[in-house]
Write a structure and sequence with these properties.
With about 500 residues, this protein is an alpha+beta fold. The protein folds into 4 domains: about 90 residues, no CATH class; about 110 residues, Phosphorylase Kinase, domain 1, CATH 3.30.200.20; about 190 residues, no CATH class; about 70 residues. Helices cover about 60% and strands about 10% of the residues. It contains 22 helices and 11 strands. Strand 9 and strand 10 form a beta hairpin. Helix 9 packs antiparallel against helix 11, helix 14 packs parallel to helix 20 and helix 20 crosses helix 21. The longest helix is centred in the C-terminal third of the chain and has 35 residues. The chain is globular. Belongs to the protein kinase superfamily. ADCK protein kinase family.
Length: about 500
């Protein structure tokens, strides 16, 4: 089976002239002319990026999803290829209704008519991993039922193995292959696919995002009905709205389009900086607009998370960009460990300024974040800046936001929209409110550690009588004094905060 799949991949790659990626440079360059003479019948008049996109579409949905992910790695691939791969659409024919009913019967160990009051056999959406049907629960609640494609797991495992082999060959045969780190990309892609194959995990993602935006005037997230969820079936509240890409219909529904665009930016920054948890697949097919003007999100298979440290450095970078403080941008990269400690901050600052300065004071329609990101990644490579894996999904989401914003309101001023939000968030982090919040967060840990200190000291002394006891005892005494001073400082800060709140 694998050998036939491999032969198909080779056939498709040859048909679209992908061999040119390997034979125009490097050790296989001598094969270029003979192959062109022997394949004079091939029409290779299309650009290389378009031919690669067509080849991935011909290979099937898993390769399409891989191409979609690869399009976000502008730090790895040329921008002309990234732009073309971004056009890939994850659309596949649905599997039959009889198969869907059979899956549900087996999953629930009961007939569908017993589980649901009404079940619509025709799916309303179909993608590479799952398809969605509408249904009604016995209490009259209208729901959407997401069903995993049968037999998709072994197909994905098989294709991932082939991708890994192909990535290994690319790294060996293409001069730029090693720099592209394609095997790393394949590994990252496989991890995200594993998440999408477990619909219980997607349901938990949906539930978490809903909790974060419960009663929000910005975003509606459907409710999950846990009693009906399984690893291969997810049941959630049915939501209805207009696809966000249907701008004319939104205008006919009296939706304020410029306000909608600004809301999209606010939702993005709220997810990233308030929650550190964000929807990482915000393409137009997954975003709708309700009658009340709120965004509606669906498809929660891919979510991104950020630590408090990541959020802090990101906020510093964004604010510094908005203020055109490129020295602070460069310094923040060094402080975060993203750039080597020996980096010349002044040189890094100059390089960043050359990329970013031309884009300010321009409306969104005149700015391509994709191109800016590509230029920033080129600058990053020049200064040996490491691409942070946890930020890859954020980059992907930012590009999605760019596309949404451009479709809704080309005159949207992203800088003016985002800057107040970030300034307010930073003031909460570094001001008295932020200090109070951090003290309250750490107080339970201190309450546990301090009472245990004498006992821990006793055990340490008992275990180390003959191992530099005097030195260890001296260090412990010094540490105890330091802890006591720290405790005094904490008490003073708490008293100051209480007084400040009373005064306020």
């Amino acid at each position: 089976m694998r050998i036939f799949r491999l032969l198909k991949i080779q056939s498709v790659a040859f048909r679209y002239g992908l061999d040119e990626f390997f034979t125009t440079h490097g050790p296989l360059r001598f094969l270029n002319k003979p192959i062109r003479w022997l394949t004079f019948w091939r029409k290779l008049d299309k650009p290389r990026g378009e031919r690669l996109r067509l080849a991935l579409e011909a290979l099937g949905p898993i390769f399409v999803k891989f191409g979609q992910m690869l399009s976000t790695r502008r730090d790895l691939i040329p921008h002309d290829i990234a732009d073309e791969l971004a056009r890939l659409q994850d659309r596949v024919p649905p599997f039959s209704s009889d198969i869907a009913l059979g899956i549900l019967d087996k999953t629930y160990e009961n007939k569908v008519d017993e589980v649901f009051l009404k079940f619509h056999k025709d799916p309303i959406a179909s993608a590479s991993v799952a398809q969605v049907h509408l249904a009604v629960l016995h209490d009259g609640t209208e729901v959407a039922v997401k069903i995993l494609r049968p037999g998709i797991a072994p197909i994905i495992t098989h294709d991932i193995d082939l991708m890994d082999t192909g990535a290994w060959l690319v790294e060996k045969l293409w001069p730029d292959g090693r720099r592209l780190k394609l095997r790393q990309v394949v590994s990252e892609f496989a991890r995200h696919l594993d998440d999408e194959l477990d619909l219980m995990r997607e349901a938990s993602n949906c539930s978490q995002l809903r909790r974060n935006f419960l009663n929000s005037p910005l975003l509606l997230v459907p409710e999950v009905y846990w009693d009906y969820c399984r690893s291969n079936v997810m049941v959630m509240e049915r939501v209805s709205g207009v696809p966000i890409s249907h701008v004319d219909e939104l205008i006919a529904n009296h939706i304020d389009i410029p306000y909608l665009a600004r809301m999209g930016v606010e939702i993005f920054f709220t997810q990233v900086f308030r929650d550190g948890y964000f929807h990482a697949d915000m393409h137009p097919g997954n975003i709708f607009v309700g009658d009340d003007g709120r965004y509606i999100a669906v498809d929660f298979g891919i979510m991104g998370t950020l630590s408090d440290e990541d959020k802090n450095y990101l906020a510093q970078n964004f604010l510094a960009f908005f203020r055109r403080d490129y020295a602070r941008v460069a310094q923040a990269h060094v402080e975060a460990g993203w750039a080597p400690k020996e980096t010349r901050v002044d040189e890094f600052e100059t390089a960043i300024r050359a990329v970013c300065e031309p884009i300010f004071d321009k409306p969104l329609k005149e700015i391509s974040f994709g191109r800016v990101l590509f230029q920033l990644f080129q600058t990053s490579r020049q200064f040996n800046v490491e691409i942070q894996p946890q930020l890859v999904l954020l980059q992907k989401t930012l590009l999605n936001i760019e596309g949404l914003g451009r479709d809704l309101d080309p005159n949207l001023d992203l800088w003016k929209t985002a800057k107040p939000f970030l300034e307010n968030w930073m003031s909460e982090q570094i001001g008295l409110r932020g200090l109070s919040g951090r003290i309250q967060k750490e107080a339970p840990n201190w309450a546990v550690i301090f009472p245990q200190f004498p006992r821990l000291l006793h055990h340490l002394l008992a275990e180390n009588r003959n191992q530099g006891l005097e030195d260890k005892l001296q260090k412990l005494i010094i540490e105890e004094k330091r802890q006591n001073r720290l405790l005094i400082y904490v008490v003073i800060l708490l008293i100051a905060l209480l007084l400040w709140q009373v005064i306020q």
